[in-house]
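Question:
Write out your own:
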Amino acid sequence: MMVEAFSPRKYMRDLKFPFCPGCGLFSVSDAFLRAVHELGYKDLSKFVFCSGIGCSSWVPSPYYIGDSLHTLHGRSIPVATSVKLVRPDLNVVVFGGDGDIVGIGLGHFIHAARRNADVLVIMTNNMIYGMTGGQVAPTTPLRTKTTTTPYGSFEHPIDAARLAAAAGAAYSARWTTAHPNDLRKSIKKAIQTKGFGFIEAVSQCPTAYGRRAGFKDIGEMLKWFKESAIAVEQSKKMSEKELEKRIVVGEFVQRSRPTLVETVYAMIEEAKAGAKQN
């Protein structure tokens, strides 16, 4: 049997992405569309995309040939949850950046994981507010220089993948753009997992992050990703101090829990049955 060759253009409008040269979002989009292709989807008619504000939020809208909702900054997850409750037959996917998802949208992120909302969140973590001028983000590594921390960030970064797992996500993983095959495989797995799925894609931003952090070019950033990466299991044997300059990659959780759609629809049926009895 002949397998149709992958082409991102099958899923995309005839438009050029607005991203800077060397941006990791090209790789993140490619990994997602390859995963969709390998799962046998001929088009994106079974998907709805939600996004907020930021570079990462432009991945699906208006570039994917599919339905998408561009929402307010940080509000893409509750919108996606609502879409899934109304149309549980569709795959609802959120694309966003670290500032959008775990900055202004942190409360929504935690509660969606707690509720096990049936959506997939793909968060591209470029460790900075890239679109608005290079300000410090909740994911910026300690001591990194940004426009708002010229002497270096004095805050420890949030660990979004671990937070998602601790809050109740059905699936949570982290990879970098230097791990494209692992990223693609995780996206495939997350699409097929019922409940809240979260994938953090650590990505290079040469324009806003790289030059301020002292990287000469994209190659240096990708080399840093590879050399800093450490597997989840191995990280458990290391101290917090040892992990400060490492990027922990892999799957943090994969489990089966009742989903928000299942519990809401079950309660509706219970209410209907109770009303008939009364």
Notes: The chain is about 40% helix and 15% strand. Residues 260-277 form the longest helix (18 residues).
